[in-house]
Amino acid sequence: MRYVTIESTAYSISAGRERRFRLTYEVKPLREGLESWFLVSKQEIQQ
Asked: Quick one: CA dihedral 13, 19, 24, 29, positive or negative?
C-alpha cells in the first residue's frame, strides 16, 4: 500500500472562482496491472 498526493484546481460555477485542493489517496494493488484508489484526505489550499 502507498499514498499519493495530488494538487488539483477546480472551478466553482456558483462562487465564480477557482479553488485549489490537495487530495491524498491510499493506493492498494488488486491484481496485475490494477490498483484501488481510495480518497483519504481533501484539503483546500488557500491562495
From this structure: positive
Q: For residues 23 and 25, what is the distance between their CA atoms, to the nearest angstrom?
A: 7
3-state helix, strand, coil in the chain (%, to 5): 0, 80, 20
Is the overall model pTM greater than 0.70, yes or no? yes
Confidence band, pLDDT 50/70/90 cuts, at residue 46: confident
Question: Is 8:23 a contact under the CB 8 Å cutoff?
Answer: yes
- Cβ atoms of 34 and 13 within 8 Å: the answer is no
Is 17 in contact with 42 (CB distance < 8 Å)? no
